[in-house]
Amino acid sequence: MDCHPTGMESRAEKSGDALEFHRSANGDGWFLCRYGHEAPVVRHVPNAASAGKVSELAVGAFLSSEKRGPEHDALMALLSGLIPSASESTQPGGELVACCPSSEGPVQSHVQVGADALLLAVTRVCTFAQDRRLTSASGFFFQQGTRLFLVTSRHVVIDVSGGHFPDRLEIEFHVDAENLAAAAWLSVPLYTAGHPLWRQGTDDGGDVDVAVIELDRAALPPGARFQAFRPGHLPRPGDVMPIGASLLIVGFPLGFHDSLHHLPVVRQGVLASAFGLRFQGKGSFVTDARTHRGTSGAPVVVSAPSAGRQSDELAWVLLGVHSSSIDMGGRDEQLDESLGLNSAWYADILTVLTAH
């Protein structure tokens, strides 16, 4: 049966020859479509309001596109479900059996891998101006009482000097506790009636490069699975953070991540300034770690000392929020390497921004 790109209600879609694998917050649809015995293609159906044209691409060309978005990860998750597990890969006679998608329900990937709770507290952030995707960044969840917040860098939600003015974010959630390949995106508006929905702070040194946005739990994708830092994860007066202490920065450098399981990667670094002091008069400290664009908004953590702390699945101390790399303006790019240092804002600002 043919699959012709004539609209959302084509005969092929109704018959199951086209399988929808992603729908964006603005209503765009992506389908894995097959023409008889030919190789499958990816079909993009724009939302009606955009008046865009339906288009198709070969699967390989779609996945190799430089403009990577949530739809690419959704297709990867779908394709992973077509690979049978070792226990299901053969039938009597030893022949490999392909697992075909069904229109009766979501495809499972058969991948059931445990992940450190820390990885489930961090989410990928994509910024948009209406339907146009702008940048990728990192963020994490913070809970104050029963209220849930997304934390990221302030320059992710607005950057006047860089001409960056998104009007919404999309963040990713796992939606199946036993299948990390299953994920869904949540669209988070940044304004209502022209007023910003995020919170930001200032101190004696000026603006703090941290923003929090309260999330409506009722709006989360069904089955959303995540971890969240709480005030108890912040450093306490008795916690010792010696200079040179090993720390982790968990995020999505240049958007890189485990695209199958929708998990961030971890960069290791060290504490490069005296913790507790305001570096150069700002509410920040310095880390020595290799970072890239896309890491903005990532949590900076150290392993939680066991003494004096209650058992917690998220056994990490939240030191700060990664902001950006630090460099010298007068550096000779031919003679001097970049410093390789980064600015991170103290996480105690979160208690203020999420207080009420």
> What is the CATH top level name of the largest domain?
Mainly Beta
Tally of discrete structural domains: 2
Give, in order, the helices and strands: HEEEEHHHEEEHEEEEEEEEEEEEH
Under the CATH scheme, which architecture of the largest domain would be assigned?
Answer: Beta Barrel
Kindly provide the radius of gyration, computed on alpha-carbon positions and rounded to a whole number of angstroms.
23 Å
Largest β-sheet summary: 7 strands, antiparallel
CATH-defined fold name of the largest domain: Thrombin, subunit H
List segments where confidence is low: pLDDT < 50 over at least 5 consecutive residues.
1-16, 83-113
Compute the number of helices.
6
Structural notes for this entry:
The protein has 356 residues and is mainly beta. The chain has two domains: 11-88, no CATH class; 117-353, Thrombin, subunit H, CATH 2.40.10. The chain has six helices and 19 strands. It has a seven-stranded antiparallel β-sheet with strand order 9-8-5-6-7-13-12. The protein is globular, with a radius of gyration of 23 Å.
